[in-house]
Amino acid sequence: MEAIKQVFTTCKAEGRAALVTYVTAGFPTVEETPEIMLAMQSGGSDIIELGIPFTDPLTDGPTIQKSNAQALINGVRIPTMLQMVQDARKLGLTVPVLLMGYYNPVRAYGEEKLLKECQSAGVNGFIIVDLPPEEAVRFRDHCKVKGLTYIPIVAPSTTDTRMEMLCSIADSFVYVASKMGVTGATKTLDTGLEQLLSRVHHYTKGSVPAAVGFGINTREHFSTVASIAEGVVIGSRIIELLQEAPKGTGAEKVKEYCLHVSGRSAHCAIKSAQGQKPSIAKTEKNEPDQLSAMKSQNHTTSSDDIARFGQFGGQYVPEALMECLTELEDGFNKASADPTFWEEIRSYASYTNRPSSLHQASRLTEYAGGARIWLKREDLNHTGSHRINNALGQVLLARRLGKTSIIAETGAGQHGVATATLCALLGLKCTIFMGAEDVERQALNVFRIKLLGATVIPVPGAHPGDGGTLRDAVNQAFRTWVTDLKTTHFVIGSAFGPHPYPTIVRTFQSVIGEETRSQFMQEMNGKLPDAVLACVGGGSNAAGMFYPFLKDPSVQLVGVEAGGDGTSNGRHATTLARGSVGVLHGVRTYVLQDDDGQIISTHSVSAGLDYPGVGPELASWKDSNRARFIAADDKDALDGFRLLSQTEGIIPALESAHAVAGAVRVAKDLGPDKDVVICLSGRGDKDVQQVAKMMPNLMSAE
Ligand SMILES: Cc1ncc(COP(=O)(O)O)c(C=O)c1O
Fold first, then answer.
1. Where is the composition biased (Polar residues) (predicted)?
2. What does pTM read for this prediction?
3. Average pLDDT, stretch 279-294?
């Protein structure tokens, strides 16, 4: 911490802004990183940010994304990074080094262990882009004890209240993101920068320096920013240079660029680096946790508690997204307390075809030879799945918030179709992000979305072997949203994502369970079903089906996850059964990840279940044992697909076919005179072509 303070004091004395340079650790190769750090120092860099590669960077542009992917291929993990810093220090690196990245790899490594090892490796602090305020304060206090610094980030969208709070936790400098959007070198700087900085300086009372990053590229940019800020951060341009440089020349190019951009001479740069001793962080005496003090000053949002489902949930997003999540939360709270909003939703019942029917599946019951099986027919909804319930609620909410443009992610394409349908109906611009692999396997839905007047953006997989699935679509939708939060609403389709999305999606989907409960009780003279089942991808149809039965302890809640090729070989999507607690797409929940906190690839025959995370509320129901989760693999699902078609004359979506397979097992276990209701989340028209290709190999011969 002291070393960084010293940098800014020296720069001030020399009448210049500090140059802060970024490189992703291990890009382009592991061997070059210490060399690049030394080249930055010789080029006049005052502070170095070493990027922690992560599989799913939420608001990084293509340049940093690619460098992350390459670094991961190169095997870079936190221990490799610490070794790089140690090596660079041995070779004469004296400038402070900050580790910068997303929280999940840090969390997986273990904060305590990391801070200790950073201290001895010669790391000086952290920039963690997606830590929510309450955790940032805790982390900062732990850093402080070890003599390390934690740098908060502010963005143009940061409100005064948050700005005050973030500036108050800064102990060395504040990182100011110059523009809304993803990282990346740009041609022009944001015109509002001066005003943003004067707000920062107001809240730091001039006592904590501010360094501006995002988009800085040329000498002219540097000079402009240096005239109003105490530091200038350059990242993407350096990564571009490294990408362009002939093999083995990257470090030299970086040095030349740093000298040029900062306008410093090599002599001055060497002199100031020599003037510094390698900065070793020193343990400080324990400081009180500042959270309670901040809470009493009303600095944190009132939603800290309601944003969580036990240990799950929260808002692990870059600062730029915080304000619009607050706007969404306020808008949703107001709308849900307003009876006219619910009247408006109900006025679309004939359009969406609600209530959906509850159908007793007699021949399927006979086949299973156990409990009676019932089907809640969400497949009969307009557009063919449960997705329309949530899309309707969110699109109407977006309209209330004055948004004119809608974006959405989609896996199986059903959420894309439902969203595009409502945008057509209400005259809103619509863009749907879909993994490139899903675009192939759900071609019919891609055509439907386009026919409805929306644009489909295929998103390639970011890592080797990944064709591009729901996870990639979510990443790209977030990256697009952050460029235009004012006019755009991101209609997340499942019960995942940062607060308030899981609550919003579950609220709009609860119509499934509410109707099931009253329809079933009416049919069965007040009895409740013994079990309700739903397939689980992100968890929206399950959350909507289960929530109204939560307080009925006699009703078993059973989620069916995608077992893929079979859960033992790693190609599956059984996040609740086989995942561990982590952070993905802005939320703490169960995640399929490796020991280093990198998200792993999933597989399922059904695009809609092919996702490595799950809604936080489902995670909490698993932990409290209120719900249990079983798996149906690809073959089970294909069997279920044919079984429902041939016993009931209903072709289910491949996603719902997992629930059918699971229900046959549960019905057998429960035995006669019991009742099981399946949420038949969608119909299978979209899957028929795909299944036709696979049937000869995968369907069991009978
Ligand atoms: C028909 C259908 N059912 C279920 C799902 C899984 O999503 P969730 O778990 O959010 O209900 C999907 C996803 O696309 C789907 O299309």
1. 293-304
2. 0.95
3. 54
